[in-house]
Structure formats: C-alpha cells, structure tokens
UniProtKB/TrEMBL annotation:
InterPro entries: UFSP1/2_DUB_cat (IPR012462)
UniProt source species: Triangularia verruculosa
Higher taxonomy: Eukaryota, Fungi, Dikarya, Ascomycota, Pezizomycotina
GO molecular function: hydrolase activity
Protein keywords: Hydrolase
Protein name (database record): Peptidase family C78-domain-containing protein
Top-rank taxon, per record: Eukaryota
Amino acid sequence: MTDAAEPLTMDCPFCGWKSKEGEYQMLLHMETLHVEGESPFLAQEERTSPPKGTVGNDDDPQYVECPVDGCGEFLLVSQMEYHLDLHTEETDIQDLPASESTPASEPTSSSLNAAPRSSPKPSHSRSEQSTRQSRAISAWKRLLKMPGSSLHSEQILRRRSDSKTSNGSGSVTRGTRLGKKHLGRYAHEDRMPDWLADLLRKKGQVQTAGVVPVLAQLLELSPTTNYAYLCHPCVYHISKLRREGGFCGYRNIQMLSSYLIQTTNVKNHHKLNSSIPTIFQIQDWIETAWDNNIHATGRAETGGIRNSRKFIGTPEAVAMFKWLQIPFNAQSLKYKEHAKAEEELMKEVEKYFEGDPTTLEMGDGGKVRLTGLPPLYFQHLGHSMTIVGFEKRRDGGGELLVFDPHFKDSYTVTGMIGRTGVPHPRPDYALKAYRRGSKYLGDYREFEILRLLPDPVAGTRTPVTA
C-alpha cells in the first residue's frame, strides 16, 4: 500500500500563518480571523478586529497576495481566480535573465523579418518551481470555490466600488487624500525600499517586441474569431520584473511610449528622446506637471509619488502627456449596470480601431486588420492594461485584446516572433492571456481609456507593414 499524500502546506495571504492540515484548516482560519463582517465561527463577544497582517481597513478593500512565487501582486479577492488562471497560462514562461537585463535603451527588434528568437528549455529546478506554483494555484482555486466560504460570496467577491467617500456619493472628490482602494497596499508609504529602487534602476523592465504580429497570426488561425483589429505592430509588450509588485500604470505608459519612439504619427513624440522612459522618469514628469499646476490635485490625492510604489492611474497619465504636450483624449465610462458599462466599452474600442484609414487587411476577407493606431491606456478599479486590439467572435461577443503588465509572453508566442506562416495547434489557448471579455469585465461598472491622437496631417506617417 502507498502512504496517503500529505496535505499541502498553505500560507495565509493576510497574516502569513501556515496551515499544515490542508484547505479546510486554512478556510477555518480565514473565516475566523479575516472574514469581512461577522464570522459564523465566532460568538459575538469573541469577534475581534483583523490582525496586524491584514491588508485593508474600514474604507479600503482588503487585498490578497498572489501565492505564485515572485509575482508580488496584491489583489482584491474578486481578482484572484482570474489572475491565477492567467498564471496557469504563463507556466511555460517564467523569467529569463536575458530578458530582464535588456536595458530600456536597447529595445528588441519588432520586425517580422528578424531572426526568430530561440526558446530556452526550462531547467530541472525551474520545472520543480513550476510544479510548486501549479499546486499553489490549484489549492487556492479550490479554496475560493468551496461551498459556504465567505470568499465565495457576492459580499466579498463583488468589488466595493460603492465604498463611502468624502462626499458620500460613491465617487471621490477631487483633491481628497486617497487610500488603499485607489493607491494600493503602499498608499501611505513615503518611499519604496532601497532593494526595489536598485532593481528598477538596474533592470528597467521586461520588454518584448514583435508580439502584435504574432497575435495577428493567432487570430487568423482561431476558429472562434470573426474579425479583429490590432494597433500598430511596433508596440512592445512591457511587463514587470520579478518581485517588483504593482507598477502597472507605469508599465502601460511605457507601452504607449514604445509607439511614440518608433513612429512619427503623434506630435511631440520627440520629447521622449527616442527611448522608453523609466519609472523614475515618469514620476518626475508627473511631479513636474503638478508643479506647473497641471492636474495638481493629484499631489493632494496621492501625497506625492516620487520614489514611491503607490499606484498611478489615468489622471497621472493625463498630467504627464499634457506636460509633454503630446495630444491625447481621455474618456470615462460609468454606468449603474455592469453589462451596460462593458457594452459601451466594447463599442468605443471597436469604433476607435475601425476608424483608421491606413488599415492593412490580412487573411481571407480581411479577417485580421492591422492599423497604424497607437494602443489605448485602459483603467478599471485596481488595475490597468494596454489595449492593443479588438476582436469580434463568431458568436457575436466581443473581446478586448490587451497587453497585461502582470504577465509575460509564453514560449509558444515568443517562438513565433519574426516568423510567418507558423502553424499553432491551439491558437485560442495561446490567445487566452491577451483576451479580456465578459468573464473579466463583467465585474466592473466604470472604465477609463486614454488614447493618443495621431496627427492627421503628419508629413511622414510611419507605415503599417506586416
């Protein structure tokens, strides 16, 4: 006979306590000490405030740390299951030292004619790490779905977008100091730790060129795609470094910057000096904009962002581009019904991409359409991404096509960079990490998008090539 498998040791994401007796003990621990509201496991007189390790307070939602080693993201519970699904898709990637050490001043080639990059095989230790992470992901997903768990209830899973604010209306008064709900776990931290600052200065960011043309190939192969639009193929996918935490707003500004430094389609693109700005440079530009009374309420709301790891969002991107005199348009979509918010977002994004006269149609009947347009900065509560395209499925539904700074590109995608006519046995599987549809968007009632405005009379527009 074989011995029964030992229960998986689990770490509590709130206080670090370890359970050596499996999921039920962890569930009991979280229901007892970290439940939102009243725990069914405690008598009234025994109920106490959450312990010191809990991330959150009465006005801000509680955050859960992603259990995947090196991720470092703190997410609202409602984000966790989808976030873990995408980590599952990412299991064949993991950080490549060569990728992380690529300086911002030396971007990789985005040409489809470039020699294909080799795809290193995972080492034995990397394989073991992947197995451990897969076990952690599976355990957490089972925990989130256990019947009767408050983690499974609408009370916690639904984002608290209606939290009380200074004006009691559910929307924040401009100039009011914000908390963790908007600025993240480190909302009240004055300065990021030295080890993190050194990491960001030395390694910059993970950036991959040539992914948009690969998405075009995968969409062409996908049996579920009716038609799709994509932004200019020069745009880099920029993702985070291992252990950096949440700098998604900065990473999205960097992705928009990758368009500006490689095309002549937007006025004052030269102000970026042909290089992707660092996180610290972006912070300096935003602070300088505030110094010059450009959306200066942002300083009061954040308490200042220089050398910090506070979240930034659309208002900070607006301040930066306005200071640099780079033309843009920002739009907020807010509705009482989640379905209406998603519907209007899809309409706006599709309208944006279908309006480009330089579109290059690919495949039978122009199923995939490469445009010369910039990508879009996309924000919802707690996270931002870069929209690089729009897809209409054969069943009539829509998908945003995004570069998410949380995740890197898989080997199956990077192995296709620079190559044409490469078959893929499971294109929809490869596209999953880039698609955001109702399953993801249906949890939100408010979105923000920022679009750079191409100069319609530019004398030398950068052409779209495939």
